[in-house]
Specification:
With 79 residues, the chain is mainly beta. 0% of the residues lie in helices and 49% in strands. The protein has no helices and seven strands. The protein has strands spanning 5-9, 14-19, 25-30, 36-42, 47-52, 56-60, 72-75. Strands 4-5-6-7 form a four-stranded antiparallel β-sheet, with no helix packed on it. It has a three-stranded antiparallel β-sheet with strand order 1-2-3, with no helix packed on it. A hairpin with a 3-residue loop joins strand 5 and strand 6. The chain starts with a strand and ends with a strand.
């Protein structure tokens, strides 16, 4: 992706990657089953992290156009 973009957590528990230039949806990422509470791009590693009320953190390769599933899921339990 060469365009400037943003990640948006949506009410349907999906993450949408949006182009800043025209607000077009470039990619939809689905895997969470509850509210997404945080998103963080780590551009030098080409990944996106998402944290959800479903007690998981997911690692995405948001820069690969054909990949729309999490590359790793980490379950988190409250202590």
């Amino acid at each position: 992706m060469t365009d400037s973009y943003i990640a948006v957590a949506c009410s349907d528990y999906a993450i949408r990657i949006i182009a800043n230039s025209d607000l077009a949806t470039l990619k939809t990422l689905t895997a969470h089953i509850s509210t997404i509470n945080a998103l963080e791009f780590i551009s030098y590693m080409n990944i996106l992290l998402s944290a959800s009320s479903d007690n998981s953190v997911k690692i995405w390769n948001a820069f690969v156009a054909t990949n729309t599933t999490a590359i790793k899921t980490i379950s988190v339990t409250a202590t």
